[in-house]
Amino acid sequence: MASIKEYNVKINSLKNTRKITKTMKMVSASKLRRAQEAQRNAHRYAVRLNELIARLSASVHSGAHPLLKSADPGKSAHIVVFSSDRGLCGGFNNGIIKYVTRWIQENKENYDSIDLSFCGRRGFAYLGKRFETRKHYEGVTPKPQFSVAGDIGMELCDLFTSGEYGEVYLAYNAFKSALSQEPTVRKILPIEPEEVEGGVPMSSDYIFEPEEKELLARLLPRSVFFKVYYTLLENSAGEHGARMTAMDNATKNASDLIDSNTLIRNRVRQAAITTELTEIVAGAEAL
Amino acid sequence: MPKYKLSILTPDGEIYENEVESLVAPGANGSFGVLANHANMIAATVPGVFKVNEPDTAYFAVGTGVLEVLDDGAVNFLADRAEKAADSEAAKEKARTYATY
After folding, report:
1. Using a CB-CB distance cutoff of 8 angstroms, which residues of chain B are in contact with residue A222?
2. A45 touches chain B (CB under 8 A)
3. Is A157 one of the catalytic residues?
4. How large is the ipTM?
5. Averaged pLDDT of chain A
6. pLDDT 10s digits, B49-58
7. Residues of A108-127 as b/e, b for ≥16 C-beta within 10 angstroms?
8. List A89, A104, A116, A149, catalytic entry
9. In chain B, what are the domains?
10. What domains are there in chain A, each with its CATH number?
11. Which member of A182, A189, A286, B95 has the lowest number of beta carbons within 10 Å of its beta carbon?
12. Which residue in chain A is spatially nearest to B79 when comparing CA positions?
């Protein structure tokens, strides 16, 4: 049996670990709150933007925009995989990695080839070695910014309009709640007609500058940028949520271990005292 | 001067909301102004200086966006990004760094 001292060392190191996990949990909780706040702000923008696009596309009758054109079947597909840059967030990254791997296996007959791009180091570290990789956007996940999402979105639109890829997908953890994230693969290009339909055509006394068609051409890429941005936000909220849960569990585990180790240590101490007492009593009797 | 409601909205949230007298926006086909009771309009804007008179003048550096004058005369401005600047020079300087797609 280990000595009392060894148990004390163990308990102390467990206490330190618990301090760290508890702090990480609190940090994640506050970051999660900020990420959710950003999501709420972004939502208001999205509502207005989509409404505007719907109304505009209802009044434009001629010629579809290049981003709306569905590609020929059998063309290659592009997936942007969103994960976190850091670990210690439970099954957050593993979940999306497994899901994407399975998705590619299931869908690979439908396309000539499937290429990947990455936002977030964890996904890149695993999937980057196993599949055809186009680009890794570094350092974009910790602080989602619309300008960054715009750059990524622009590249995706260019890849799509140049005909290099027939379809573009985003793979990410959809944020259900702080406790649960659901791996999702969602198509962003071509833009589905249903997304832009359903608007009420605008009255003819509206002034358009430039004309409606060109306005729509300016707005449609924005809806793609916005989807990338929102995905970055969801990814970041999910990461913090997952880390919060993981660290909460780690803290609980550390507490349990501390309790059980303390119990054993006390037992060892008691045993030592009993032995000592017996020795003294035995010694006194011998006199 | 009569006033109308202006709100500047970006994906990061609402940057500005107030009753204003007039604004000058960097339109895609040259800058334009909006006074109260303007006709319904949708206009695209490019990165540049967005000026607001309320009647104190405020300057914003704005990215690409779209401005809509609604039926009730209120103005919604959706921009990629917007930042308040001290004066028109500072706003111009800042807007120069914004992406133009």
Report:
1. 64, 80
2. yes
3. no
4. 0.86
5. 89
6. 999 998 899 9
7. eeebeebbbbbbbbbbbebb
8. A89
9. 4-96 (2.60.15.10)
10. 4-26+245-286 (1.10.287.80), 37-244 (3.40.1380.10)
11. A286
12. A45
